[in-house]
């Protein structure tokens, strides 16, 4: 089955602009998480959506926002871009919990290839 | 405060030898741990996981060891192959379902 698809793959913006990134999860996956990756910082959790509701949120300013649609596709938006927002933004989806595993999103995450954002 | 730490930014190992990647955590409530591998220009891919009820999980050349008292886990790769050259991330999860990630260790396998 098709993997996680992120668009656009690469984009360049200038300070003060805003950007919207899109993520289409694997068919049947209802949980979508977003991460920011910068050199030396690993993966920083932005937020997680499940059934159109934000279920978890990381420690990022309000300029970072997201949403999930009824088909589980998700978008994240960054407003008033800063130079430090330059990073690889990764989206990951996960499948519903199996019987006996009532907790979701503690198992395998499937990542997209990411959207590389450069802010000039 | 980093709850999951990978203290070695990089590691170089001879092909055929054992690679040992380490990860320490501070939150005793973490009960599920995962390792992911990432090649350049690709998203991370799941490698192996371990629940806190176990102290070892093996999958082919990959074995993860968990020492709960020391709050330490390690990933062993035996034997190491050139295709194992990548960045390895460890991640931990607790009751709030959120995965906390380490900064990654770049593994270089020398031929």
How are the SSEs ordered, and which strands pair?
The complex is a heterodimer of chains A (about 120) and B (about 110).
Chain A: E1 5-7, E2 10-13, E3 19-24, E4 31-38, E5 42-50, E6 53-57, E7 64-68, E8 74-78, E9 87-94, E10 110-111, E11 115-119
Parallel strand pairs in A: 2-11
Antiparallel strand pairs in A: 1-3, 3-8, 4-5, 4-9, 5-6, 7-8, 9-10, 9-11
Chain B: E1 4-5, E2 10-14, E3 19-25, E4 32-38, E5 45-51, E6 56-59, E7 62-67, E8 72-77, E9 86-93, E10 99-101, E11 105-110
Radius of gyration of chain A: 14 Å
State the distance separating the first and last CA atoms of chain B: 38 Å
How many helices of chain B? The count is 0
Low-confidence stretches of chain B: none
What does it look like?
The complex is a heterodimer of chains A (120) and B (111). With 120 residues, chain A is mostly beta strands. Chain A has strands at residues 5-7, 10-13, 19-24, 31-38, 42-50, 53-57, 64-68, 74-78, 87-94, 110-111, 115-119. In chain A, strands 2, 4, 5, 6, 9, 10 and 11 form a 7-stranded mixed β-sheet that branches. In chain A, β5 (42-50) and β6 form a beta hairpin. The radius of gyration of chain A is 14 Å and the shape is globular. Chain A starts with a strand and ends with a strand. Chain B has no helices and 11 strands. Chain B is 0% helix and 55% strand. With 111 residues, chain B is an all-beta fold. The radius of gyration of chain B is 13 Å and the shape is globular. In chain B, β9 (86-93) and β10 (99-101) form a beta hairpin. The mean pLDDT of chain B is 92. In chain B, the strands form 2 sheets. In chain B, strands 2, 4, 5, 9, 10 and 11 form a 6-stranded mixed β-sheet that branches. Chain B has a 5-stranded antiparallel β-sheet with strand order 1-3-8-7-6, with no helix packed on it. Chains A and B meet through β5 and β10 of A and β4, β5, β9 and β10 of B.
């Amino acid at each position: 089955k098709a993997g996680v698809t992120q668009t656009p793959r690469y984009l360049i913006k200038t300070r003060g602009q805003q950007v919207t990134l899109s993520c289409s999860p694997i068919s049947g996956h209802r949980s979508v998480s977003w991460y920011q990756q910068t050199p030396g910082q690993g993966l920083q959790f932005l937020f997680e959506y499940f059934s159109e509701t934000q279920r978890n949120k990381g420690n990022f300013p309000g300029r970072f926002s997201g949403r999930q649609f009824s088909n589980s596709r998700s978008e994240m938006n960054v407003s008033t871009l800063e130079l430090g927002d330059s990073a690889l933004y990764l989206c990951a989806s996960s499948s519903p919990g199996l019987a006996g595993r009532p907790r979701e999103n503690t198992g395998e995450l499937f990542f997209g290839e990411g959207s590389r954002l450069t802010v000039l | 405060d980093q709850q999951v730490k990978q203290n070695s930014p990089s590691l170089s190992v001879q092909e055929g030898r054992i690679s040992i990647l380490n990860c320490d955590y501070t939150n005793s409530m973490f009960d599920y741990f995962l390792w992911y591998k990432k090649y350049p220009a690709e998203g991370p891919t799941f490698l192996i996981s371990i629940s806190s009820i176990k102290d070892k999980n093996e999958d082919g050349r990959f074995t993860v060891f968990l020492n709960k008292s020391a709050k330490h886990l390690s990933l062993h790769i035996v034997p190491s192959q050139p295709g194992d050259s990548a960045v390895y991330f460890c991640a931990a999860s607790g009751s709030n379902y959120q995965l906390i990630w380490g900064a990654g260790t770049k593994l270089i396998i020398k031929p």
